[in-house]
Amino acid sequence: MKISHQLFRTILIVAVIIFYTINGETQTGWQHSFGQSCGQALIKALKIKEHLTFCNELVPLNEWDVRERLERELLVCLNNSDNVILWLKRSNRYFPYIEKVLKNNSLPDDLKYIVITESHLKPRATSVKGAVGFWQFIKSTAFRYGMKVNKNIDERRNFFSSTEAAINYLKDLYNIFGSWTLAAAAYNMGENGLRTEMLMQKVNNYYKLYLNQETQRYVFKILAAKLILSNPERYGFYLTKDDLYKPIQFDVVEINVSKPVPIYIIAQAANTYFKVIKDLNPHLNNYYLSAGRYNILIPKGSARGFNERYENLLRNWRDDKEIMVYTVRKGDNLATISKHFNVSIKALMKWNGLTKNKKISSGDKLFIPNDTD
What we know:
The chain is 48% helix and 9% strand. The chain has 15 helices and eight strands. It has helices at 5-22, 38-46, 64-78, 81-104, 114-119, 139-144, 159-177, 180-189, 191-201, 213-230, 263-269, 274-280, 306-320, 334-341, 345-351, and strands at residues 53-54, 57-58, 250-257, 261-262, 288-289, 292-299, 324-327, 365-368. The strands form four sheets. Strands 1-2 form a two-stranded antiparallel sheet. A two-stranded antiparallel sheet has the order 3-6. A hairpin with a 2-residue loop joins β1 and β2 (57-58). The longest helix is centred in the N-terminal third of the chain and has 24 residues, at 81-104.
């Protein structure tokens, strides 16, 4: 028998209540006061008596529809406590850098909560509309703000590059609309779309605009994240310093590549593993670096002696397993090429960033790894 996710959560909550009741223990926060009922505790958590602002712009909670829209997003968040816990844990890893960049640019600290709504601080987050990375850039906007997006690199997944781009984009949006609330809405739906709605409706106030459902909820999702993350104990989330994910510690090395180099060579030179390099550099798409210049993050403390180790490893690898560049001929396909060079089709696809739907054509250049032992 299959049990729905919601039913499973209900059973789990009841089990927790029984456990704590039997053991004579109590809980705190919004999940406390089961004697009153969990619903009553939630109602209490929704009562916001203080002034609420976004980037120092007042949220008109005295208007019934504004309060209702905010309460909806708060309830959605609190019903997904596993997400909130991960927000709290991850924010300790990423927020200090975002806060520093915002401060250096004299921008409101509240802008950091946008990244929670966009990606939950997940570097590989994607959307059905093709938005990618921490700050969920589509390709055209990524290009506009100087990020590389190609088959080898996707800087939308680079936390530092994408944060800088997002800050610059938000500054431009504020200069257009003169309001951080409208700038946030435009970040979600695009500046042209928001301009059009403002023109058609003759309204320049986010809270009074009729927008698509995603954008109508967008700022309220940001506000819900702000309320919970700025005072997690109020909502029953008690995390210690040891519970939080630590900020990323790393060194940066510059690598100039003339011919394709496997990432595992870089990992070995950094005294670590392929996975560590990929986790530190989620913008690297492939198993190798193509020709070019790169700034690569490696584990903290491993930069000392890196260049010497890297050159030795690279020299030995090239002596043993020189990579060949093959020009595709008429009539070739991956099966015939893999058989000719005694390499797997899967290896060919990974080395060349190919997908099942992408066909090769006469004249294409393919990297042929001679790693066949």
